[in-house]
Each structure stands twice: as structure tokens, then as C-alpha cells.
Amino acid sequence: MARLYVVTGSGSGIGAATAAELRSRGADVVGADLRGADIEADLATEAGRARLADEVRRIGRIDALIACAGVRWDLGDSRGGSDAQTIVRVNFFGAVRPLLALRELLAESPAPRAVTISSTFALRAEDESLIQACLENDEDRALALCPDDGERAYNASKAAIARWVRRNAPSQEWAGAGIALNAVAPAMIATPMAPLITDELREEQLRVSPLGGIGRPEQVASLLAWLASEANGFVSGQTVFVDGAGDALARPEASPI
Q1: pLDDT tens per residue, range 70-100
Q2: Whether 30 contacts 5, CB under 8 Å
């Protein structure tokens, strides 16, 4: 029987690239998104998260959950963006609540894996009280603490994801159940969530991400696919940067060792 992966945010960007990568490897993939996916669910809402979990339970099994769904703030271009509260609802609670809801079913797999998406923007997070409310799984308080600035809300939501993974991965509920839990933290990737990409932006990004400047969704997808695979039997609790050496350039002394 092929491995079964559930990928949220499968309609575009990193989620779509991840679903395509997994299918190319012969896996069964169930995509979830607002529309046009196997499971249509609005992860900004508790009802949408419950619908996702219920639909997966109806399938009866899951080997890996890759939580890619996310929204951006308004970058000032014609595509618009989401308000601060929606950013926190989707980017943090829209990832964590399904992971919690499906953890027990996931643990029934012989090789269970869970991966979600942080961001290099997490390094810019300022709103510690918002991060703590997220970590305490208190959505009402988190929304009340949201700043008006969508970028600040985005940064805090991604910092909270990275800390949540690190706090929970070693626990009895995750590592104790054999579930490897990780996150990836991309820098700028050429997806609909990125700014409009111009020659000037490419040159600017090469200065901050010297290995390539702007990443491709497929480059993140290949790492997500490995972290969620049977091959990953010992990597857990990590937030892996996918940033063209950007963090190493900006913080050369910030080695974890």
C-alpha cells in the first residue's frame, strides 16, 4: 500500500509543488485548500479545521501531514493580502489545530511524520505576548493581541510555529508515539505569496540569499517530502532553513553548536 500524505495549501505555491513531488514518487496524496482540492476547508476557521480532520478520519489512515497552508500580508501590489487576525488564524492555528486533531490517527502509521512551515521572517518577530498566546493554544487571546501591522503578525505566527515544533517534538505525544515533527523556514520563494518579482528584486535577494537569491517551490518541496518520508527516522524538533545561505550570511556566529 502506498504511503498516504495529506498536504494543506495544496492549491498553489509550496503546497502544490509538494503534492506534485509526492505523487511523482508514487505516493497517495490528499490535498486540502479553500477550493479545488480533494478536501475543501477554510483553515482560518475552527469549522474548516474540523472538516479537514473529519474528512481524513473518514479515509481511515494517514502516514504524514504536511501543513503548508498560509497567507501573507498586503505587500502593496494589486494582489492584496490578509489582515493580521486572518494571518494568525491560518498560519499558526490553521497548522497546529489540524496537527493536534489528527495526531492520534497519525500515530497509527508505521512511520508517522508531520511537517509545517515557519519562515526566515520569524527572526524579525517582535510580539512576544502574541507568540506566547499562540503557544498556549489560546486563539481568542492571540487574536486580541494581534497588531494592526500584517507583517508583524506574520512574523509572530511563523516564530510561534518554530517554537511550537521545538517544544512539542520531544514529548510523549509526538516522539513517544514515533512521530517525527519538524518545520522548514523558507526565505523568499517564487510563489503567489512573494512580492512581484522584478530584475531589481532578484539582484537585491542575491545580496541577502547568495545561493540563488530567490528560491523555487520545488526546492522546498523536496525537503518537505524527505522530512515526511519513511527515510526520515531520526530528524525531529528542527526548523530547517531553506534560504540560500541567507541566515549564515546575516548571523555567521549564530551556530547552534
Answers
A1: 999 988 887 889 999 999 999 999 999 999 9
A2: yes
* C-alpha cell recorded at residue 100: 493536534
Helix (H, G, I), strand (E, B) or coil at 74: coil
Classified as helix, coil or strand, 151 is helix
H/E stretch holding 137 reads none
pLDDT digits (tens, 9 = 90+) for 147-170: 999 999 999 999 999 999 999 999
Helix extents (H) in the chain? 13-24, 46-59, 84-88, 94-106, 128-135, 139-144, 150-168, 199-208, 217-227, 246-250
- β-sheet bridge partners, residue 113: 64, 180
Radius of gyration of the chain (CA): 17
Question: Which of 5, 73, 121, 154 does the annotation list as catalytic?
Answer: 154
CATH 3.40.640.10 holds for 4-250: no
Q: How far apart are the C-alpha atoms of 64 and 202, rounded to whole Å?
A: 34
SS3 at position 86: helix
Question: Residues 37-50: pLDDT tens digits?
Answer: 999 999 999 999 99
Catalytic annotation present for 154: yes
How many CA within 13 A on the CB side of residue 94?
Answer: 28
Residues facing residue 6 across a β-bridge: 30, 65
The residues near 16 (Cβ < 8 Å, ≥ 6 apart) are 10, 217
Q: Which residues contact 94 (CB under 8 A, 6 or more apart)?
A: 8, 43, 44, 48, 49, 67, 69, 70
pLDDT band at 257, cuts 50/70/90?
A: confident
Q: Residue with C-alpha cell 487571546?
A: 141
Query: If we measure between CA atoms, which residue out of 2, 20, 22, 24 comes closest to residue 11?
Result: 20
